[in-house]
Amino acid sequence: MVLFRNWVNDSNPAVSKLSLQKIATMAPVINQTDTGIQSMAIRHFGELLRDMNQYTWMLNAVVLESLVPLILFLEDTETRVVMACKHTLAICALELKWSTFPQFMEHYSFEMVVLNICNNIFISHGSYITDLISDSLGFLRSSRVYLRRAALILTGYLATLGRHLLLKDDIEVMLEAVERVLQDEDPLVEELAKTTYELFKKIAHNLTSSVIKQSFRRLFNFIYIKKVKLLYNYNSPGSPMEIKETDNCEEDVEE
C-alpha cells in the first residue's frame, strides 16, 4: 500500500498514471473462482481506493465498473468473500459520496442492500445505469446459481429506477437475456426471472415513441424520484446472512 501511495504521488506523471492503471486492473480479479485469492483481491482493491481517495475523480469509473460483481458476490456462500465485499462496498460508498449505505454493513438483507445501492446510483451516477444493467445481465450466464439469482434482482431494480433511460432496443436485449433463464434448473432463479421479465415488459409497454416525449420523461424522472418498494421479497437461501464484521474493517472505513 505504501508503495502504491508513493508511486501515485511520484513527481513523474508517467509513474503516477501507471500506478492508477494498476489499481484499475485489480477490479477484474474480483471474479476469481479461488475464494482465497478473490477475497484478498477484493479487500486490497477497496483499501487501495481508500488510500488513493484524493484521486477519486480519476477512479470513479473503476469504482462504478466494480459495483456489479461486488454486489452480486454478497450472495456468495463463502463468508470471507461476503465480508470482503461488504468491506469494499463501504469504501466505494464513501468514495462515491453515498450517505445511506454504511448503515447496512452490520446486518443486511440482500434485496434491501440492492435497493439502497440502486437508489444511490440513480441519484449520484444515474447515467451509468444502462452500463450496470449490461454488466449484471452478463452474470445470468454464470454456472453459479446464487449469481444468477442476484443478477436478476439487481437488474430488476436498476431497470425500475432507470426506466426513463432505457430505449426500445435496450429492453429487447434485456428481455432476450432473461428469457434464457425463464426455465432455469433452479426453481428460485426461474421464479425471479419471471418477475423480472414481467417488470421489463411493463417498462417496454410504457415507453414513449417520440424522442421529444422521452426527453421530457427523462427530465421529469430526474426531478421527481419515485420511491421504489421491494419487488421480490427475496430471502437468500444458504447465504451468510447477518454476518458481523470481526476484523475492524468498519472502523478502518470510517477513519
TrEMBL record:
SUPFAM superfamilies: ARM repeat. InterPro entries: ARM-like (IPR011989), ARM-type_fold (IPR016024), HEAT_Maestro (IPR055406), Maestro_heat-like_prot (IPR045206). Residues 15-199 form the Maestro/Maestro-like HEAT-repeats domain. GO terms for cellular component: cytoplasm. Gene3D superfamilies: Leucine-rich Repeat Variant. This is Maestro heat like repeat family member 9. It comes from Myotis myotis.
